[in-house]
Write a structure and sequence with these properties.
six-stranded mixed β-sheet, 34% helix, 2 domains, 314 residues, 13 strands, single chain, Alpha-Beta Plaits, alpha/beta, Rossmann fold
Amino acid sequence: MSQLLLELEHVSRFYKTVIGVGDLNLQLPPGAYGLIGPNGSGKTTLINLITGVLRPSIGSVRVLGKNPASDRRVLSKIGLCPASDILYPNISGLHWVETMTGLHGFPRTDARQRAVSSMTQLGMSDNMERPIGAYSLGMRQRTKLAQAIAHEPELLILDEPFNGLDPIGRHELAEFLRSWIEQGRNLILASHILHEVEAITTSFLLIHGGRVLASGDAREVRSMLSGFPVEIELQGTGLTALAGRFSAHAWFRGLSFSDDRQSMTIRVADQAQFLAALAQAACDVDVNVSSVTSPDGSLEGAFELLLRAHRGET
């Protein structure tokens, strides 16, 4: 059996009366994972436990087979791009990345070469020698990421890396991360921007309230929701005539109309049966359906459904 990338056994971290994470049990093989959750869900606490910044109040954490809080050698195998801004404004981005790379034990010449290479990879070749205080937020994000990859870590961890990036910067970062994964490298990407994470990796951990609600690939996460009602929005004319047709079916869970009756949101327990009934009804009654969309069909919708289920709202 190959070495696990990450192993957590009954891990909890408390901040006085607040639970940062609670009783986490994870076994992740090598690969790329999206850590998805709203702000305050426990993502950053989990990252701090993985990188040895925090020790668990209860339980054990192992990264690449080592305890990051007690075996500091494993930290040289981790690259971290934190959400917080940790840069010094009066030095250049190149100087900062070179200095941080040198802390991993590289000779000065080697550290500088690595810093130049990583800054260039992230599109900072024209600005690497400017003072960080003159950088835009997006340039600061690229500099933090350059620092995280300069020592060629086995595991790259990014906390909200898309913050501050313009659309072009987001696209370039996504392309870089996909290339990183294609090279067989490990990645943990924490974010609340679900569609951008889904474009990079297909494996997810959905976290809320310091607990993992679900894990797996996008298809597995959605399959967990097969028993939950799904919302589908229809737009068109003559929608009122459909309401009576649908309400008699076992899969029907409720509906609502917009004020102008041009939009109807229906809650169904089985999308396939609903779509079959819709196709039949469209032939039988005078109705013109211009669009059928499901907010719950995306990963973001799946996550919202899981949150509602967690709160007992479904």
